[in-house]
Amino acid sequence: MTTSSRQLIYRRCQLQPSVAVLPDYLKPGLDVVFVGLNPSLKSAEVGHYYAGPGNQFWPFLYEAGFTDRRLRPDEDGLLLSYGIGLTDFVKRTTRGIGDLPDTEFGDGLGGVQSKIEQFTPRIVCFNGKSGYQAAAGNCDYGLHDKDWDSIPLHVAPRPAALSQ
Predict the structure, then answer these.
(1) Which of 113, 111, 110, 155 is nearest to 133 (CA)?
(2) pLDDT tens digits for 92-142?
(3) Which pLDDT does position 164 carry in this prediction?
(4) Which of 24, 96, 121, 155 would bridge 33 by S-S if both were Cys, CB 3.0 to 4.6 A apart?
């Protein structure tokens, strides 16, 4: 991605914060829904989740046995057939997490919780504790005592951070 295309994407998303950059992949009865913080500039550019170079989300899904082969970011729409859903706390992209105020995560948490209660997956996995922590208070990695309508909540390291 060129610097100018990155800047263009960033400007568009900043000027139109209500525009969803990536669609939710959700349906009733999924095995797991992964909740990201917000789309990266690369994901916004290509229109697919976890598309940044070195992002470990796609290898993780395969290595953990969620998928029968290693999928690519442009195959994110196939995840529903594996019983996997995707959404984000914040649907707009930023240069980094530091550009998102905690209030935006709080607003996003309510939206995510509403979606989870509507679609009732077996478990919710937050990719990174920053968003969950900003919205809901202190948390650790792993399975949490809290739940949403008896749906267990799990917090995992951000896949982009695993590559660093």
Answers:
(1) 155
(2) 888 777 888 878 877 888 899 999 999 999 999 999 887 677 667 778 898
(3) 44
(4) 121
- Average pLDDT over the chain, rounded to an integer: 84
The DSSP letter of residue 29 is: T
Contacts of 137 (CB under 8 A, 6+ apart): none
54-74 core/surface letters (b: 16 or more CB in 10 A; e: else): ebbbbebbeeeebbeeebebe
CA distance 71 to 107: 31
For domain 3-162, the CATH class is alpha beta
Instruction: Domain ranges for the chain, please list them.
Output: 3-162
C-alpha 146/C-alpha 70 separation (Å) is 32
Give the pLDDT confidence score for residue 163 in this predicted structure. Answer: 44
Instruction: Report the candidate in 135, 152, 146, 59 with the shortest Cα–Cα distance to residue 97.
Output: 135
Q: What is the pLDDT of residues 12-66, one digit of tens each?
A: 545 444 455 899 999 999 999 999 988 988 999 999 999 988 899 999 999 999 9
Environment class of 110 (CB within 10 Å of its CB; exposed 0-12, middle 13-18, buried 19+): exposed
